[in-house]
Design a protein that fits this description.
Radius of gyration: 25 Å
Largest sheet: none
Shape: globular
Helix content: 55-70%
Distance between the termini: 33 Å
Structural class: mainly alpha
Oligomer: single chain
Number of strands: 0
């Protein structure tokens, strides 16, 4: 058996000694660790505000303790039930109408022959991802407004104008269509990287056995994608209660609150428009985070039941 190198301590070495051996790798991780520490862990100190009357003098630990007062206030509000329903419907709609399309497009990209056509298509489909939702929403508004290109075309063909942006019934489908346009190309990257790592000998053996392209996709490509599909699905489930704040905030208006107002946009309005106490906003944000944690843990357990090698923890 090959003797272990002196430069790489074995598993029996003390933790500090092993960590020091990989100090440059940890140094590369440092910016990411600092980011998560400052923007994800330090703000958790503010969760206590949900149980206290907010005070600017001592925002984190000051103020009178009021227990579940603001949670009871939220749960008894009609607006809360509306935004919770909208958040769940929009988020699960994304799982049904958006998540599978990235997998399907990756499979289609893989069937394109020739590197140049494939790269061209990937570039075209991925480009909208780099537009901010401020810019993308501006483009969509110009296209779908009453005087936009789409309505001008409808009128030219003898039809009546359609208020795409102010009809509550059209807002959710519009969210899914525009998010697919913007993000579907970027979503294929992980799947394409996994497809390229599949051993080509499997396809060669399948061809020898008489398998056509559909059989190769069904019995080789898709099974190889299952672990990464499970991981991406878990990450999507972890954000179910978010539902896409950037997109909705830049596209919605007061006429579509009944179907488009979600928890994050409601928190924004409560804090900066209505002027509710910060304690109410923090209570709603804490509720959202707890539900996300429960959904992620449950989904991870279910995925591990399906595939022991899948899951993120």
């Amino acid at each position: 058996m090959k003797q272990q190198s002196k430069r790489e301590p074995g598993p029996s070495s003390p933790l500090i000694k092993r960590a020091w051996s990989y100090k440059y790798i940890y140094l590369m991780m440092l910016p990411g660790l600092i980011y998560f520490l400052l923007f994800h862990y330090v703000p958790m100190l503010g969760t206590g505000i949900a149980f206290r009357e907010f005070s600017f003098k001592n925002p984190f630990f000051g103020g009178e303790f009021v227990g579940l007062k603001y949670f009871r206030k939220l749960f008894s509000s009609h607006n809360f039930s509306v935004v919770l329903r909208n958040t769940i419907i929009i988020s699960f709609g994304r799982l049904v109408f958006e998540f599978p399309l990235a997998v399907a497009l990756a499979l289609l990209f893989n069937e394109v022959r020739g590197k140049r056509p494939k790269r061209f298509l990937q570039t075209v489909y991925s480009f909208p991802h780099f537009l901010s939702w401020v810019v993308a929403a501006g483009i969509i508004t110009n296209l779908l407004s009453d005087s936009g290109v789409v309505n001008q075309l409808v009128v030219a063909l003898g039809g009546d104008k359609v208020s795409f942006l102010t009809q509550p019934g059209l807002f959710r489908p519009l969210l899914h269509i525009t998010n697919n346009w913007k993000e579907i190309g970027w979503g294929t990257i992980v799947y394409l990287a996994t497809i390229t790592s599949i051993d080509s000998q499997q396809y060669e053996a399948a061809i020898v056995d008489g398998a056509n392209r559909w059989h190769q996709i069904r019995y080789i490509t898709l099974p190889s994608l299952v672990p990464i599909i499970c991981t991406m699905l878990l990450l999507q489930v972890a954000n179910v209660m978010s539902a896409g704040f950037d997109q909705i905030f830049n596209m919605y208006n007061s006429t579509v609150y009944s179907t488009g107002d979600i928890i994050d946009t409601y928190i924004y309005r409560m804090t900066f428009v209505i002027g509710e106490s910060f304690s109410s906003s923090i209570a709603l944000g804490l509720f959202k985070s707890v539900i996300n944690l429960v959904l992620l843990t449950t989904a991870n357990w279910l995925v591990k039941r399906f595939d022991k090698d899948a899951g993120i923890f």
